[in-house]
Structure formats: C-alpha cells, structure tokens
Amino acid sequence: MSNEVHEGRGDILPVVLGGDIGVYGIGRSFHEAFGVSSIAVASAPTAAIARSSVFQTEHLPAHADDATVLAVLRGLAAANRDRHLVLMANHDVHSAFVARHAEELSQWYALPFPDLDIVEHVTDKAAFARVCEDLGVPTPGTVLVDLSGAGEPGWSAPGIPFEFPVVAKAARGDVYDAVQFEGKRKIWFVEHPSELEDLWATLAGAGFRGTFLVQELVPGDNTQMRSITAYVDSTGRTSLVGSARVLLEDHAPTMIGNPVAMITEPFEQLWEDARRILEHTGYRGFANFDVKVDPRDGRALFFEVNPRIGRNNWYMTAGGCNPMVPMVSDLVDHVVPQPEQLRAEVLYSLVPDRLLLHYLRDDALRERVRGLIDGGRRFDPLEYPAEKDLRRRAVVALQKANQYRKFHRYYPEATDRSF
Questions:
Q1: Fewer beta carbons below 10 Å: N end or C end of the chain?
Q2: Which residues, other chains included, contact 124 with Cβ-Cβ below 8 Å and sequence gap of 6+?
C-alpha cells in the first residue's frame, strides 16, 4: 500500500486551487506521503486550511478571471524554481481552467488532469452518457435540454418521456457555476411537469444558456450510491482504482449529492466499467465517478465522471492507497507506477457517529458501521494529528457538531430517495 511516508521529498511543492474540504484532503495526502506542505490558492479558504500547519495560503480575488489566476500561478512558479510543482484542483471551474491553459501551465507544473478535448468529450454529462451507451455501460434514461435559445420567442423544452418525479442537473458544472440566482440548487428534484417549466423559466431569466439533463429518478436512498476514484497514468493505464459505498449525503441545496460518510469497499465490476470508459476515451490523470445501484434490478448506473480527484478523495488515503504517490511517481519521477487497488475497509466520515447511525436503516449496515467505529477504523480527514492549532481544532469540532442542525433542517429523516 502507498501510505508509507516518502522521506526527503522537499523537492515537491503541491499547489492546490480552491479552499474547501476536498482541497484539505489533497494537502493532507501530500503531507502524509511526502512530509511537504501545500499552497492553497483561494479567495476564502476554510479555517481548516487557513489555520493549518500543512498549508500555506495564497490569496486570489473572488471571481478572478483566467489572467489573474495565471498570474498568481506564474508568480508561484517563479518563486519556486528549485522545486517540482504539482498543480491540483477539486472543482469543475478549476479543472476547466487547467484544461484551457494546460500548454502554458505545463511549463511549470505537473498536471494530473485530462486535456481539453477529453473534458469536452467525457466530463460533459450528455457526452458521457453517449460514451457509456457506446460501451454498453448502463446509465439512467436521459433527455437533453439545450437552453442556448432560451428566452427567444417560440423556444420550448422537449417533452419528458419518464414518469415524474425526475431529476434535473446541468450537463457542465463549470457553465452552471458561472450563473447565480436565488434558490439555486446543485441538483433539482422535480415532482411535476409544471415545476420543470418553472425551472426552465428561472434558468432562462438568469442567463443560463448551456445544456441541462433531465433523468429518470432511480429509487433508493443514499446507501445505493457508489464512488469510484481512479488515476490513469501517462501510459494510458488505469494504475490506481478504489471505491466506496456512500452511507449519507449532504442535503443542503447547494451541496446536495456530496457524500459526508462512506465505507471503502471493492466493486470490481464497477472498476472494470470505469477502466473501459477511461481507456476508451484516452483519459489521463485523476477521475471520480458517481454511480447508483438500482434496487429494482441491481444494475449499477453510471451518472458522470468528474475531471478531478473528487471532493472526498481522502477516503483513498484513509484506506491505505494514497493517490499522490502513484501520481508523483508518474509525473514527477517519470517512473510508471505499479497497479494498485484499494481493498481495505474503513469508515470515512465528516459527521458525528450518532448522527450517521440515525440515518442508517439497514440493520446489517448499521452494525458494520458500529464495528468500524469500535475498531478504530473511522477517519475524518479534517481531524489530522499533525494539526496543533487549538483554534482550528475548535472550529472543526463546532462545524462537525453543526451537522445536527443542518440535517435537522434539510433532511430530518431518512427517505427512500437519494435527494
């Protein structure tokens, strides 16, 4: 396993765009593997990063344009000419930025990202569905709604052949992130056709001109979701893969669908399907897949692939497969990494144990979780023993306790739906 500390790697400098928990997970993995601190380039990093002993921060103006971000990254490269720089990110907007400017950035940084053509071809949810269809990988029934002409006289959305309720979401996260409006949600759960018409009107009025997907609702609660994390090395081989069973997701409107508790578990058929998708499309770098198992027939339906390592990437490290190790071997040391698969079982959780157990309705799964907790196999990425700042510890503890209030507001009781 790749969780041993690699001494003497002060020649590496990770630079991470963003300032959320996913960024912290990346920095923690680098610190655990190589003993190095990372630089978070962000406008408003969380206290967990701002007061971290394993991070430095580089301020970025809010809503900075490409030229501003490039100038900051160029300056960091100039100030650290004696180190191997690795650029990481964990948000669709940042992944798209890296893809747009990969030629320039690659002069200074190792870039574990797919190129722009792959981003357009695979990580657009509509294009991804077509790739899956070509390969025979199951996906939910989907209708594409092109809003490029929304707001013009005579524009109308196509009919929806599925029974309501349905799920609606943007095909491209970076395009949707650029639009702001009251009541914005990451994913829309739509009960009636009239609600869908209202959504189109809202998007049109806000200036959104991208593509939305309307998908059939796959039944089943959060525990039917699966996460797959992979790294495709520079030879095109999927050299690292791991997966987790989701236990609980965030239900706040702008965060819905983000897992907050997971058990690492091997899902070999899903690994094979993910590998086929990645290698068929010529993908390189980190990828994160969202999959849901349909309880009606047991089919695993692939929803999307994110062109980044994923918000909850640290579950890989917690399970003993630190993803920074093969990536650095590949892109910094130019040594093809040995294939690695995550098979250890750990509980990755951002919420209090009592809260998590409250939402688990399957007795066997609840006992499995209790066993991991009692056995000392439960890990929170923010609770890192290397962190000594007392104020940071207090903030992290308060944020964790606040999960009770947040779940009471947005998801008071578990339901049979994921959203």
A1: N
A2: 171, 172, 211
Whole-angstrom CA distances from 310 to 65, 79, 307, 400 are 23, 29, 8, 20
| Unique residue bearing structure tokens 């104020």 | 391
Query: Which stretch of DSSP H or E encloses residue 277?
Result: helix 268-280
Judged on CB neighbours under 10 Å (0-12, 13-18, 19+), 304 is buried
**Rounded Cα distance, 237 and 244, in Å:** 21
Which pLDDT score is estimated for 119? 84
Range list of H helices, 310-362 = 314-318, 324-331, 353-359
| DSSP 8-state secondary structure symbol assigned to residue 178 | T
The predicted structure's pLDDT at residue 175: 85
Segment 313-332, tens digit of pLDDT: 999 999 999 999 999 999 99
**Sign of the four-CA dihedral 237, 240, 246, 250:** negative
**What angle, rounded to 10 degrees, do the helices at 66-79 and 92-100 form?**
70
List pLDDT tens digits, range 327-350.
Answer: 999 999 999 999 999 999 999 999
CA 138 to each of CA 141, 285, 298, 330: distance values in angstroms, whole numbers, following the listed order:
9, 24, 11, 31
Interior/surface letters 335-368, b for 16+ CB within 10 angstroms, e for the rest: eebeebebeebbbbbbbebebbbbbbeeeeebeb
186 phi/psi in degrees, rounded to 5: -70, -40
Q: What single-letter amino acid sits at 35?
A: G
Tell me the HSE value of 320 on the side-chain side, using a 13 A CA sphere: 11
Q: Which of 325, 253, 254 lies closest to 286 in space, CA to CA?
A: 325
Q: Please, are residues 105 and 79 in contact by the beta-carbon 8 Å criterion?
A: no
Q: Cα(first)–Cα(last) distance of the chain, in Å?
A: 35
The letter for the amino acid at 314 is: W
- Say what the pTM is: 0.90
Ranges under pLDDT 70 in the chain: 1-8, 417-419
Residue 94, both tokens? 């940042």
Exposed / middle / buried, residue 145 (Cβ in 10 Å: 0-12, 13-18, 19+)? buried
How much is the pLDDT for 4? 60
How far apart CA 223 and CA 293 sit, in angstroms, is: 9
Give the DSSP H or E segment for 393: helix 390-401
